[in-house]
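Narrative of accomplishments. A recurring question from our advisory board has been how the design workflow behaves on a single, concrete structure rather than in aggregate. To address it, we present the structure tokens for one chain from the evaluation set, followed by the sequence designed for it. No filtering or post-editing was applied between the two.
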């Protein structure tokens, strides 16, 4: 079938993207779903810093690349052998497909799925195929999804059925922002009511983490963010301390503004300064967690004696450190119960033809969870 899709052909073009136009919206051919795959009519695609990291070259991917990994849509066709999804099902896409049979998957860690990582790196679906092409030119899939498009063919292992009615704008949040941010707090930190946490960076992931910490009853929740609107939102949601990092001149001042060190320092921004702040805010015996994805060459000078003498932990969290097929329905239940008000994260909506303008707005740091609305 023919449909319109957002394709990145060259990384590293300068911002503003509305002028340099790194992403081209073009008509492409989409093949029918193969075994274990479904055709999804995309309704809403979220705009995430993971895409920006590809556009600016921080996270190199194979070109040309059909963009997008966070979305909500409806199944309109199923491929051979598909029994767990049916035409008409509403689904959200997940950016790491899990085979279910490799060692990480069998250990309950599908974020580390080995065939999934290989497929994402080479730009294919989980089964190894590619379903997008422009004439004779084959296009690569972004993280097995490629949802900044009117339709997408994805592995059933790359999507989760939405069990209850939600608007597509709400549902799309759960595929990446909520899954990643809330998951790191719930699954990686396993935060309790007596704990304290500092969240550095209040994009979609950071705000989801903040909501999860509040839902868990954390007694002190510190939000560190340069954008005034996001700090105000964090405070209105229940953050006990909000900090503009641009006003901080020393480590002592940072700790004072936070009300002291915390049990969990969480970096969601994907820049070295944010991780350093999260580490500095973490108490002796505490844990520093990062879900950010900076340039692969970014390093942190770790004081090993401090790591030992203060019994610190440093952990990464990918895909929310959980099982999407289990976690997403649970997070939706929390949302419907009013305990995880992720609708507060909804940002600006753009059309498919405005995709470069959307990435400019995301890059400005002023937006919440922006999206592309297909209809």
């Amino acid at each position: 079938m023919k449909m319109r899709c957002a394709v990145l052909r060259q990384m590293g073009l300068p911002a503003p993207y509305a002028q340099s136009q790194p992403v081209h919206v073009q008509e492409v051919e989409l093949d029918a779903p193969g075994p274990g795959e479904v055709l999804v009519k995309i309704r809403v695609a979220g705009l995430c810093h993971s895409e920006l990291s590809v556009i600016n070259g921080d996270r190199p991917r194979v070109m040309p690349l059909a963009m997008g990994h966070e979305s909500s849509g409806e199944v309109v066709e199923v491929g051979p052998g598909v029994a767990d999804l049916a035409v008409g099902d509403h689904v959200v896409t997940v950016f790491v497909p899990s085979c279910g049979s490799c060692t990480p998957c069998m250990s309950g860690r599908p974020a580390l799925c080995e065939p999934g990582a290989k497929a994402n790196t080479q730009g294919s679906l989980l089964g190894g195929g590619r379903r997008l092409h422009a004439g004779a030119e084959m296009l690569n899939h972004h993280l097995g999804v490629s949802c900044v498009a009117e339709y997408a063919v994805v592995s059933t292992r790359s999507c989760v059925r939405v069990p209850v009615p939600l608007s597509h704008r709400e549902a799309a949040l759960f595929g990446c922002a909520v899954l990643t941010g809330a998951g790191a707090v719930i699954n990686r930190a396993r935060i309790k009511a007596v704990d304290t946490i500092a969240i550095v960076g209040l994009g979609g992931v950071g705000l989801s983490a903040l909501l999860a910490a509040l839902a868990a009853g954390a007694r002190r929740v510190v939000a560190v963010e340069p954008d005034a609107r996001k700090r105000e939102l964090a405070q209105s949601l229940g953050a006990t301390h909000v900090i503009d990092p641009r006003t901080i001149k020393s480590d002592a001042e940072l700790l004072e503004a936070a009300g002291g060190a915390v049990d969990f320092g969480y970096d969601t921004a994907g820049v070295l300064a944010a991780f350093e702040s999260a580490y500095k805010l973490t108490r002796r015996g505490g844990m520093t967690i990062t879900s950010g994805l900076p340039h692969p060459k970014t390093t942190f000078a770790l004081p090993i004696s401090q790591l030992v003498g203060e019994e610190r932990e440093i952990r990464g969290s990918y895909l929310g450190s959980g099982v999407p097929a289990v976690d997403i329905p649970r997070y939706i239940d929390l949302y419907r119960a009013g305990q995880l008000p992720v609708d507060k994260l909804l940002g600006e909506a753009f059309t498919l033809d405005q995709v470069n303008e959307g990435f400019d707005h995301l890059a400005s740091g002023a937006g919440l969870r922006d999206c592309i609305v297909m209809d």
